[in-house]
């Protein structure tokens, strides 16, 4: 296969790293660069990225609002599974990468590009997530990963390269950033530098989406979330689009100090890393979704889902969103959600979210069966035979007594 690159689609933020990458691609490969900037709800104005790309001579610039697609087709399917990586992480960065990769491949086809490029480093998970997405969608695509190729291994070298090629750098961007930040509508992730020592508590200024739980209101906030087939559709009776709903949950959760996480996790590439995450809306949504499942899901289905969830979460974390096994698990999860419709009432208070009410037209909860008062639907004498059958193997084990050792033939 020829290594000649004529046109490349770059995932572009407009920051120092991707601006240097843009020029480096032109210098190193002599190719035309097309920029793609995705609005996933990171809360930043994206027009400066367009102006920066124009100043750098880019002719084809794609800036797209993908917030609704992101929540509808990626976040919500993941939340149907109650996915948590290593029991805690709501996968905010992980779930954004397949959508970015998909659009890069689609744009590459539209503009006739023969390569795509990302700015992920050679130490992290994102390089894997992006590239597994690329190859799953276009096995023939060429991938350029500058951090695995160039010798610009420090911020000072990046700035030096930028100055050599007349790339403007704001004065406030010349100093060393205290930590790296990745954000989208689901979460904010902060890693590296000032946060690398896992013994040192993160300063409060690291958090940008939530008040400290100690400073949250002294009065609880109660909200009701409506679900249809496993997806949240309304808050306090007001129907919202997926992105608008998650935005509102972020506001409510953040105002009550909900969703902060200090996590030491296992990266796919083998090392451990420490991340400070904020997922206020997602934390509320997870609790509410489990609440509506508790009244609508059959015990067997619920327990099987809980068994499948760690595998499903790991697939997303490791970048296998487009793999057949993830799609197979998704089909099973989506099947389980057919009756997951109803309303959950939650209490938000000083960093905690508590389900305090749930109702559904598909409820499996029967007060007639569980009441402590007299009833006519359950014969308590039936439990005796049930218990005896469950105990039979335990009784036989105990009656057997000590296992006889085989004779020695020495």
Keywords:
alpha/beta, 5-stranded antiparallel beta sheet, single chain, 410 residues, 14 strands, Argininosuccinate synthetase, chain A, domain 2, Rossmann fold, 5-stranded parallel beta sheet, 12 helices, 39% helix
Summarize the structure.
By secondary structure, the chain is α/β, with parallel strands linked by helices.
What does this structure look like?
The chain has two domains: 143 residues, Rossmann fold (3-Layer(aba) Sandwich); 176 residues, Argininosuccinate synthetase, chain A, domain 2, CATH 3.90.1260.10. Strand 9 and strand 10 form a beta hairpin. It is globular, with a radius of gyration of 26 Å. It has 410 residues and is of the alpha/beta class. Strands 3-2-1-4-5 form a five-stranded parallel β-sheet, sandwiched between helices. The chain has a five-stranded antiparallel β-sheet with strand order 10-9-8-13-14. The model has no long low-confidence stretch (mean pLDDT 93). The protein contains twelve helices and 14 strands.
Question: Looking at the structure, what is the overall shape?
Answer: globular
Biggest β-sheet description:
5 strands, parallel
Which structural category fits the helices and strands? alpha/beta
Determine and state the CATH class of the largest domain.
Alpha Beta
Mean pLDDT across the residues is: 93
Strand % is 15-25%
Q: List unreliable stretches of 5+ residues.
A: none
DSSP summary: helix tally: 12
| Range of helix content | 25-40%
Number of E strands: 14
The CATH superfamily name of the largest domain is Argininosuccinate synthetase, chain A, domain 2
What's the number of structural domains?
2
């Amino acid at each position: 296969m020829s290594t000649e690159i004529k046109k490349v689609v770059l995932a572009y933020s407009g920051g120092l790293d991707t601006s240097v990458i843009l020029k480096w691609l032109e210098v190193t490969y002599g190719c035309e660069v097309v920029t793609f900037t995705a609005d996933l709800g990171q809360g930043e104005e994206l027009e400066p990225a367009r102006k920066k790309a124009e100043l750098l001579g880019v002719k084809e610039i794609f800036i797209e609002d993908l917030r609704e697609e992101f929540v509808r087709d990626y976040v919500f399917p993941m939340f149907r599974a109650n996915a948590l990586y290593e029991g805690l992480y709501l996968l905010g960065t992980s779930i954004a990468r397949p959508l970015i990769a998909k659009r890069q491949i689609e744009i590459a086809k539209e503009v006739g590009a023969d390569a795509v490029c990302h700015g992920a480093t050679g130490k992290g998970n994102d390089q894997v997530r992006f590239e597994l997405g690329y190859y799953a969608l276009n096995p023939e695509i060429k991938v350029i990963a500058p951090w695995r190729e160039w010798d610009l291994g420090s911020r000072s070298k990046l700035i030096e390269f930028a100055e050599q090629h007349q790339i403007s750098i704001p004065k406030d961007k010349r100093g060393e950033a205290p930590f790296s930040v990745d954000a989208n509508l689901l979460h904010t992730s902060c890693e590296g530098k000032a946060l690398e020592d896992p013994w040192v508590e993160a300063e409060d200024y690291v958090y940008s989406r939530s008040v400290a739980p100690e400073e949250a209101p002294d009065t609880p906030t109660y909200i009701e979330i409506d679900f249809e087939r496993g997806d949240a559709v309304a808050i306090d009776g007001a129907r919202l689009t997926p992105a608008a709903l998650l935005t509102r949950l972020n506001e409510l959760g953040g105002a009550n100090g909900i969703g902060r996480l200090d996590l030491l996790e296992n990266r796919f590439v083998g090392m451990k890393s420490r991340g400070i995450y904020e997922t206020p809306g997602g934390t509320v949504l997870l609790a509410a979704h489990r609440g509506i499942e508790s009244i609508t899901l059959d015990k067997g289905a619920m327990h099987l889902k809980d068994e499948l969830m760690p595998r499903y979460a790991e697939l997303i974390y490791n970048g296998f969103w487009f793999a057949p096994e993830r799609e197979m698990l998704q089909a099973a999860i989506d099947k389980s959600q057919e009756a997951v419709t109803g309303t959950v009432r939650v209490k938000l208070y000083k960093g905690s979210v508590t389900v305090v009410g749930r109702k559904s037209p598909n409820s499996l909860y029967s007060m007639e069966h569980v009441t402590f008062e007299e009833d006519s639907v359950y014969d308590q004498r039936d439990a005796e035979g049930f218990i005896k059958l469950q105990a039979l193997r335990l009784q036989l084990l105990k009656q057997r007594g000590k296992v006889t050792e085989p004779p020695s033939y020495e």
